[in-house]
Protein: Alpha-1,2-mannosyltransferase
Amino acid sequence: MGFFRPGRARSVFLAMLATLLVCTVYLYWTPITASSTVSVVPSTAFEVPLVERQKDFWKVFHPLIAKYNPRCPPPAKLGSAPAVHFNPNEGIPRPDLSKVTEECLWLLEGAHDQFVKEITKPDQDLKPVHRHTPGTRGIVTTAGSTYMPVVINSLRMLRRSGSTLPVEVFMKDTEEWEKRICNEVLPEMNARCLVIGDVVGKEPIAHFQLKIFAMLFSSFEEVIWMDADCFPLHKPEDLLDSEPYTSTGMVTWPDFWFSSASPLYYQVSKQPVPPMTSRQSTESGVILVSKKTHFTPLLLAAYYNFHGPSVYFRLLTQGGPGEGDKETFTAAAAALKAPYYTVSEKVQPIGHFDSIKNSGSAMVQSDPREDYALVSQGKWRVNDPSVAPPPAIFFIHANFPKFNPGDNLFGMGWETTPTIDDNGTDVRAWSGPLEVIDRFGFDAEKAFWEEIKWVTCKYETVFESWKNKAGLCQKVEDYWNNVFAEPHDDDPKFTREG
Structure:
């Protein structure tokens, strides 16, 4: 009969302990590569995945917006609203170019009224805490196809500003998913791809409607919306800690034009018709909004967008410039009497100007903090520009054309030719107006092209929309060498600090 030695017991115990340790590490350790920039550990052990939260929200919200479909024909179009530059000192008659039958008006009013009652009920099932992560903030945008190179350029400028905010890039459906971009390129920039189609299924949400649903489906509580072709010159997160955002929870920027909303819209939403001089129409390339304070207005904006192609885009714009989602955000906030701040400083076009034509290719929006400071002192530059110097430029919306080297950026065959003059010579895209360019505070165009060059040469063979195009890197490098590599006498000089 054998006997048990103490030394052997110790060896067996140590072997068992080592085995248990190895198994524990194997089961619970998740490797993180050196190149990882996004945590793989959920913020809480039992956090419901975002896409599941989005689907839960959609299961409740979709029947609601479908239930209150106005169920009447689109408004009759009596013409399109003209593009008239806003002038607060000299109003124009409000366009009245849309007609509906008495029965349709009754249906529109009833559906709108019932939907508003549903989303404002204290016990409604659309509580935002279940849809986003409280206390979070980030950038939200949409991209896909030819917009993918554009959004990468913009994100490079975002990071160049010093911003560390996470980014969620929504795309319409899985056909717009680009494997290397979504799995490698964006995560390196603290950004990720999300697919709206994964949430809404076959519901035909597209084009202008994507913006509001990307904002609602985002995981962030505080959202900075930026169009794919829009980028900041300074850290945008600083705006979320400053007035006017901190007191209102929503900030928007102006378009060039007078409002062209139909009087019918105000009747449907039970609002008094505002004076035409009260504010400009909205340019929705950038929006700051808190779901904590403005979740219900976002739901109403989603209602306007969901029924936009059939009714509300027409009622809110009447065929005027940029018809689509642009007016739905401020309209929804006003209808629910939610506070918001619209920057009063006028949007400005930038481009280059030669003997034949003006080649405008972007618009710039001002720092809302500086605008708010002036307005708080009763200094309304929109009424009288002489009352104070203008605010600094904060955002550039490079929208016409999109600055995609694989698209219509170079050459003469386009409505606007941002990169060449009337002689076919390479020139800066943004050389004027000089008083606007000076408000950049630094050579933002050179910085932008530096990022375009980096993106083009690094990912020339990566973007799906560039697969059948060759020589893009060389084309951008040639342009860079002609315009930016060496200083020129007519390069912009900056008197403001950036």
In short: The longest strand covers residues 133-142. The chain has two domains: 128-342, 348-483. Residues 6-28 form the longest helix (23 residues). Residues 348-483 form one domain.
